[in-house]
Amino acid sequence: MTLDTLTKTWRGINRENRFHRMAVALLLVTNLLSLAALLRADRTVVLVPPILEGEVNVARDRASREVKEAWAIYVAELLGNVGARSADFIQQALEPLLAPPCAPP
Question: N or C: which end of the chain has fewer CB within 10 A?
Answer without folding.
Answer: C
